[in-house]
Amino acid sequence: MRSLCVAVPRSRAEAVRQELLAAGLLRKGVAIAQEGGVVFLPVTAAPAGRETAEREFRESFAPIRSYKDVVRLPDGLRPLLPTSFDVVGDIAIVKLPHELAPHGAAIAEAILRANTSVHVVAADEGVKGELRVRQLRHLAGPDRTETVHREHGLTYAVDVARAYFSPRLGSERMRVAEQVRPGEVVVDMFAGVGPYAVLIAKRRQPRVVYAFDANPDAIEHLEENVRRNRVTGVTARLGDGPSLLAAIEPPDRIILDYPHEPEPAFRASVPRVRSGGVVHYYAILETAKVEDRERGIVATAKGLGRAARIEAGREVHGWSPAHKLFAFDIRVS
C-alpha cells in the first residue's frame, strides 16, 4: 500500500519512531521499510519540521493480545465481557452474562482469532445434577465436546459435556500430589476423568489409588487415561464414593473434590481414614464463613469420635462475585 513517510538515517530511526509514536503520527498496520542505511517511517500526516515523501509499504498486523481487541460489540456491553475463560484441550468454555447471550457467536469468533490453539468455543450454562456435568451451548468451531488436555506432562481424554473437568485446579492437583509418600493408600472420592489419581500414581509411588465416581462416562475416560499415560496402581470403581470407601482398607489419604456439598462425604471419611491420615476437603464459601467452616470440621470429627487438626487452608480460586473455592488439609487422629 502507498503511504506518506519520513526518511531518517538508521542510527536515528528508533528515536524518531518514538517521537512520531508520542505525537500520534506513526501509522499503524504498515511495516517500516529500510533500504541501505535509510529507514522509512510511515506516518498519517506530515510532522512539523520534517520532510515527507510517498512510497509503497507492506501491510502489517499487530499481534492480538486479547479477544477483547477484536470482538465487535456495542460499547455499552464491553464492560460485561469476561476477563478470562477455561480452556480444556482445544475447547474454550466461557461464562456469559445474560446481556451478552445474543452476542455469543461474535465473542466466540473473537476468542478463536485471539487463541490459535483453541478450535471450539462453548458457553458454560452451569454445572448441574449430582454428577456435576456442565451444561454447554456450542458457539463456534466444530460441534464437538471431546478433546485431549495436557497437564504436568500427562494427557487426559475429556468430554466436557459428559464429565466435569476444571483446568483451573492444575496447580492444586500438584500441591496435593506432592504430599503423597511412597506406599500410601489414597482414595479419590470423586475422581472424574482421573487427573488426581493418574498424577499421584505416575509421580508418587503410592501402594494404590482408589478412584471412585458415580458417573459411568467419567469412569470410562478415567480408565482410558490410565492406559494412555501407562499408569499402574489405579483401581477405578463405579458407584457411590462413601459406600465404596466402606468396602476397602483404611486409607492414608482421601481427596474430597466435591465442593458444592462436601459434608456428607467428609462424615463418611472421618471414621475410615487411618489414624494420622489426611483428608483434602474442598468447599465453596464466602470468605467471612471460612472460620465457621473450620470450626464445623473439627466439631464434626469430634462428634464421630476422632480428633481433627486443620494443617493448611487456602483460597484456590474465585467462584462467583461472593464465593471462592477453598481447600483444607485435615489431619485426623
Describe this structure in words.
With 333 residues, the chain is an alpha/beta fold. It has 3 domains: 2-56, Alpha-Beta Plaits (2-Layer Sandwich), CATH 3.30.70; 67-144, 2-Layer Sandwich (GMP Synthetase, Chain A, domain 3), CATH 3.30.300; 161-332, Rossmann fold (3-Layer(aba) Sandwich), CATH 3.40.50. Helices cover 23% and strands 31% of the residues. It has 8 helices and 17 strands. It has helices at 13-22, 104-114, 170-177, 195-203, 216-228, 241-245, 263-269, 290-303; strands at 2-9, 33-35, 38-42, 53-56, 86-88, 91-94, 120-128, 133-140, 146-151, 154-159, 185-188, 208-213, 234-238, 253-256, 277-285, 308-318, 324-332. The strands form 4 sheets. The chain has a 7-stranded mixed beta sheet with strand order 13-12-11-14-15-17-16, sandwiched between helices. Strands 2-3-1-4 form a 4-stranded antiparallel beta sheet, covered by helices on one side. Helix 2 (104-114) links the parallel strand 6 and strand 7. Helix 3 (170-177) packs across helix 4 (195-203). The longest helix has 14 residues, at 290-303. The radius of gyration is 27 Å and the shape is elongated. The model has no long low-confidence stretch (mean pLDDT 93).
Tell how many strands the DSSP assignment holds. Answer: 17
Rounded to an integer, what's the Rg over CA atoms?
Answer: 27 Å
Write the element-wise H/E pattern from the N-terminal end onward: EHEEEEEHEEEEHEHEHEHEHEHEE
Going across the biggest sheet, name each strand in turn: 13-12-11-14-15-17-16
- Identify the CATH architecture of the largest domain: 3-Layer(aba) Sandwich
Derived structural class: alpha/beta
Terminal CA distance:
76 Å
Number of helices: 8
Strand content: 25-35%
Total of domains: 3
The CATH homologous superfamily of the largest domain is named: Vaccinia Virus protein VP39
Helix content: 10-25%
Low-confidence stretches: none
The CATH C-level name of the largest domain is Alpha Beta
User: Mean of the pLDDT scores?
Assistant: 93
> What is the 3D form?
elongated
CATH topology description of the largest domain: Rossmann fold
Largest sheet composition: 7 strands, mixed
